[in-house]
Design goal:
Shape: elongated
CATH architecture of the largest domain: 3-Layer(aba) Sandwich
Distance between the termini: 26 Å
Number of strands: 28
Largest sheet: 6 strands, mixed
Number of domains: 4
Strand content: 25-35%
Amino acid sequence: MITVEEAEKIILAQATDYGAEIIPFELALGRVLAENIKADRDLPPFNRVTMDGIAVNYDAVADGISTFKIKATQAAGDEPVEIEENDECVEIMTGAMLPASADTIIRYEDLSLRAGLATLVTQEIKRGQNIHYKGKDKKHNDQVAGIGQVITPALISMVASVGETELRVKKLPRVVIISSGDELVEVDQIPSPYQIRRSNNYTVKAVLKQHNIEANMLHLPDDPDVIKKQLKTCLENYDVLLLSGGISMGKFDYMPKALEELHVESLFYKVQQRPGKPFWFGKHNKGPLVFAFPGNPVATFMCLHRYFLPWLNASVGKEPQITMRAVLNNRVSFHHPLKYFLQVKLHQNEHCQLVATPVEGNGSGDFANLTDTDAFMELPAQRNEFKKGEVFKIYTF
């Protein structure tokens, strides 16, 4: 049995670059860029008006002119209208291109408009005000986004503004979620008194969907021949197999033997943690990885967040997530030589501290408890008592 830190190190050492693919930019949210994006022209591409009002030449204001004849009205997207006389102005809208003959925008709030004339009602006018100058944000060919950036709504806006309709992004692994056991029936079926509905696979699928992975699902009966045949097919067609259950020492746990016969090397089995002690991790000699989580729902959920998601982020080139910590809100006792992942509810106190309140559950099979919690708090294995006010790592979900 190995420590949590050793398990994490072994798993992260198997981070794999699956290459890149090109997808439409509007489908790229949450993906990781695999190319540098450059501006196809200056940003903004022209001197852009930032307030509704009038465009004037500041020299006229400096010469004491306070009333201007409105020559025309220019909307955003219109061809600029030029000023020909000192006492002329152009009524102009936000987003419009500044006429070359003007250099200052005076907003409506500082004007009185009447009978085709605009009169200043303030003396607080500065040359060049209310203008977003050409190239102020980025110059032509400047990089606007780079390899390794996660594509956010703001980045979608940027790539759209430079005309990138397709983006090269890091490929995601092909994943299959495998459940097993004759005691499990499908969601739409009525279980017998000694059966339960399958839920772990749907939970895992939902978490992966949050990370842009559309995983397939497969359920295997307690039949060693069927298990071996199906696992062989999965190893040939997927990069990652996520197993939930069937990996322990029970009489009907056929997975370990089938994986061994299919040349999947065990990199570790059992981790000093609760929940999730009987966690198995291995690698096929041709590359596919196998995460075999314990069948208890809370254990599967915790292992998925603590081990698989960090591996996924490393594989697609995401920066490691900032380690979050929270203040324990109640005293906790745990008298086992294991690292304890405590389910907690989070809130922020009046001092802007993140506070974690333990939520009592009924062990790793109590998946109903997950709906009332926000995170796992990682409590060190070297201690039995944890005091209110102490700070520990958390993994949010």
